[in-house]
Amino acid sequence: MHRTLTAACLAAAAALTLTACDPATGDGKSTAPAVSTTTASPAAAITTDPAGTLPSLVGKPLPAARDAARTAGFTDVTSHDATGANRPQTTEADWKVCFQQPGAGAADLATPVGLAVVLTAESCPTADGIAAPTPTPTPTPAPTTTKPKPKATATHQSSGTTGGSTSGGSSSGGTSGGSGHTEPPVDNHGGATALCNDGTLSFAAHHQGACSHHHGVAVFYK
Fold it and tell me: d(Cα 14, Cα 21) in Å, to the nearest integer?
């Protein structure tokens, strides 16, 4: 009787254990929770905008224009003679930009930039490839020559005098020929010895003979 009760208890305990393992099926097998398998979407590709902004380069010296274009991101920058003469830009500092292609504004950074240039001292042509107009030289007016006014001379030829004249107490008659005399200056009489009666100056070394042909002496200066 004791063995029968023990066996019944063991059977009941086993049945309870099986029921606790799987209440739905009672088969004793445990069920693992379902794992969600979500596929992650790939990261969006990073794209760059190839467009840039080309500044206005017209009027700039060629080196400055080239630097400005490259700073804006345009690496393919070339230059050519705007007059169509195909002159090389050996010294870029001597050239300036007349035209650019493409013009200022938005453009793909891979776009080649062409600069049409002329020498700094030249005028730009009306269009790329046309010879620049030759500047008309401004005529230089001839210098005005002013003739100097003739200087007043104090030396003159006195006219001959007819008749007698008294000089130094002696008289002389007849016609006297002209002689060169200098009119008295304002200050020192020009070194004259005497003033003659006819207004001329005498430069005789001695009083005797002074103004002998000019109506005598009016004033002795020395």
Answer: 11
Say how far apart CA 216 and CA 208 lie, in whole Å. 10
Token pair in block for residue 96: 């300036």
| Residue 156: φ, ψ to 5° | -145, 165
In terms of C-beta density within 10 A (0-12 exposed, 13-18 middle, 19 or more buried), how is residue 93 classed? exposed
DSSP, res 78: E
Pairing of strands 51-54, 105-108: antiparallel
The helix/strand/coil state of 201 is strand
pTM for the full model? 0.41
β-strand 51-54 against 155-157: which pairing, if any? unpaired
pLDDT tens-digit series, residues 7-54? 554 555 555 444 444 444 445 454 555 555 555 444 444 445 578 999
Compute the distance between CA of residue 219 and CA of residue 201 in angstroms, rounded to an integer.
Answer: 10
Two structure tokens written together for 157:
């030829």
